[in-house]
Specification:
alpha+beta, single chain, ten-stranded mixed sheet
Length: about 400
């Protein structure tokens, strides 16, 4: 868009109005004195922990091209997910202890009501195991996951694994946003599941997402919701801490929490405190919740959530874990034991937050992200590779012309 003074003035005017409204909303969301008193009690600190010999952590992240290519009523999607595994070593600090193959999937989807759903199931199943029957594999995940139990407890309705399978959301091939989320998430949880079930399993496995189950209250569901919960079930069997760490918590009142943390650490209001955490209670587990989480479904069903800051230059992040893991491994017989378990957990995680390439953030997630991310050049190369392959099989080259380029839009 060429510079236009009228458009620029309109944008500025609307931004000023939005800023005024945002300021008034923030003032309405201030925490009252009673809740502030409780927060001062609940917010806890943990020790800066640069070393714990033998401790290991895995990380998972994914990307792709959604779509990589499209022509007529056909869409080609590329999904990639990568897991990493690091162990703390006295000499080299973080040592990569295992090189893991990426999960890669090429999905060919058609805008065809008869073939589309089957092709989508095959695309999901391929990311888990390309050698198994798609329907059987998806149904097996649904049966072995505890998602069914969580859905029953939330909806109070009887439902069977077969019904869940039939009601999986299978988008149209052109619904790129929906498909991107499903394929990328399935690839990531497939990579996590592979590491959980391997003989090289770490002490902790982290992913850049949340434990949220978007459709747990609906008759429909997303396949990756089932796979996410299966990862939680299998990780718990292995005594493995399978956590999600989100950089975007979407919660208000952070300025007041920052002040409380600084106050606890003897800092001024202008200084930023780090190495602190706050568990986010729920009505079901604790009999109370904070005002800034009540409309957010945080913690998610089947999970426990924390806010944590590892270092002052990184944001406050939200860490989720399976509720049963929390009850068995973190919650103690009394408040003091719970506090000791929580502090040990966050100190363990802090060990992996001291690499200069991602200081204040667990490096195994960063490493997985870097390996899975596609550059612009790689996307173009894969697109050309796909085009050449299809043309070689006899398809018309004109199908693959870039419409935007041909009409002057690029």
């Amino acid at each position: 868009m060429r510079f236009n003074q009228a458009i620029s003035s309109s944008i500025q005017s609307q931004l000023e109005q939005a800023a005024s409204e945002l300021k008034s909303w923030q003032n309405q969301n201030l925490i009252d004195d009673t809740e502030l008193k409780r927060l001062r009690k609940d917010l806890q600190c943990f020790n800066h922990t640069p070393a714990r010999v033998g401790l290991s952590m895995g990380g998972v992240d994914g990307s792709g091209d959604f779509p990589l290519l499209s022509f007529a009523d056909t869409f080609i999607y590329l999904s990639i997910a990568q897991a990493s595994l690091y162990q703390f070593d006295v000499e080299v600090k973080l040592r990569e202890s295992l090189s893991l193959d990426a999960k890669v999937g090429i999905a060919v989807l058609l805008e065809d009501s008869s073939k589309g759903p089957e092709l989508f199931d095959r695309a999901l199943a391929h990311l888990l195991n390309p050698n198994e029957n798609a329907q059987e594999l998806l149904l097996d995940v649904i049966i072995r996951s505890d998602y069914l139990d969580l859905k029953k407890s939330f909806t109070k309705k009887r439902i069977t694994p077969n019904q869940l399978y039939e009601n999986l959301i299978r988008p149209h091939a052109s619904d790129v946003g929906n498909i991107a989320i499903q394929l990328r998430s399935t690839a990531e949880f497939a990579a996590a599941y592979q590491l959980i079930k391997s003989k090289h399993k770490p002490n902790y496995l982290l992913m850049d997402t949340t434990y949220a189950l978007p459709l747990v209250s609906s008759s429909s569901s997303l396949f990756y919701e089932h796979l996410k919960r299966l990862c939680a079930v299998e990780a718990r069997k292995q005594d493995l801490g399978f956590f999600t760490l989100s950089k975007s918590h979407g919660l208000s009142a952070m300025e007041q929490l920052e002040l409380i943390a600084a106050e606890k650490q003897g800092l001024t209001s202008k200084q930023t405190a780090d190495h602190w955490y706050l568990r986010l209670p729920s009505q079901k587990e604790d009999g109370y919740s904070y005002s800034f989480t009540r409309e957010k479904t945080v913690p998610p069903i089947g999970a426990m959530s924390y806010l944590v800051r590892f270092y002052r230059t990184t944001p406050i992040m939200r860490l989720d874990m399976d509720i049963n893991y929390w009850r068995e491994r973190v919650k103690g017989g009394n408040q003091e034991e719970t506090l000791r378990n929580e502090q040990k957990l966050f100190e363990d995680l802090d060990v992996f937050c001291h690499d200069v390439r991602s200081y204040g953030y667990p490096f195994p997630i960063k490493a997985a992200h870097d390996r899975a991310s596609l550059t612009v050049a790689e996307r173009q190369d894969y697109k050309k590779q796909a085009t050449k392959t299809f043309i070689k099989q006899g398809m018309n080259p004109n199908l693959f012309r870039d419409v935007s380029l041909a009409t002057g839009h690029k």
